[in-house]
Amino acid sequence: MKTVKNKIILIAAIMAAVATSFFLVVKITPLFIVAYLFTVLAIALFCVGNLFLLSNTKSYPWIAALPLAIWRYLILQIVLSSVFVILENAFDYSLSARWLILLHVILLGYFSILLTMQKGGIEIIEKIAETREAEIKTKVSVIRLMQADVESLIKKFPAYTKDLCQVADTMRYSDPMSSPPLAEIENKIEARLAALSETVEKADGSAVKALCNELQQLLVERNLKCKISKVIL
Predict the structure, then answer these.
(1) Contacts for 44-49 with beta carbons within 8 Å, 24 or more apart?
(2) What is the pLDDT of residues 20-57, one digit of tens each?
(3) Where are the domains positioned within the chain?
(4) Tens digits of residue pLDDT in 145-168
(5) How far apart are CA 57 and CA 64, in angstroms?
C-alpha cells in the first residue's frame, strides 16, 4: 500500500514538473499563468483522488469514480488551456485571462456536479441493496425458524426422532425463500407445527406420526407453489 502511494505521489510530482518546465519555452502571460495554475490544481486533485481511493476500499464503486473523473478533468483542462496558449504563442491571438478562468471554473463545476450525482446514485443503490438484503433475510428466516423448532423437538423428545427427522430433512431441503403467495400455506405449516409441539409433549405417538406426515405433505405443496410463483414472476 505504501509503495503504491509513493508511486502516485511520484507521478503527480513528474506531471507538475513537466507543467512547470513550460515556463522555459512559453511566453509568460496572464493567460499562461491561469492555464498553469489550473493544471497544477488538476494534478493535485488527481493525486488526492487516487490516495483517497486507496484509503477507502470499502466504498469502492463510488470512490473508484473519483480518480477517473479527475483524470478526465485533467485531460480536458489541459486540452482547453493548450488551445489558447498555442493560439497566443503561434498566432498572436490572446483570450482574456478572465474568460479562460471562467471556462475552467465551468469545467471544474461540471465535474463537481457529476461526482456529486454519482455519489448520490451510489447511496441510493446501496440503500436499496440494504433494504433488499433485509427483506431476503426475513423471507429466508421463516422456513429456517420452523426447521429450528423441529430440531429442538428432536433433542427434547428422542423417542420421536424418526418421524421428526423426516420433517426436519424436508424443511432443510425446502426452498428457503418465502413470498406473499406462500403466506397461507406457511401459516398452515406453522399451525401444524404448534400442534405437533403440543402432541409430542402428550406422548401421543400415533398423533405425532399423523402430524409429521401432514407437515411433509404441506411442505411438498409449499415447494411446488414456490416453484410456480418463481416461474410466474
Answers:
(1) 44/12, 45/70, 45/73, 45/74, 46/12, 46/15, 46/70, 46/71, 46/74, 47/8, 47/9, 47/11, 47/12
(2) 888 888 888 888 888 888 888 888 888 877 777 777 66
(3) 2-95, 135-232
(4) 888 888 888 888 888 888 888 888
(5) 9
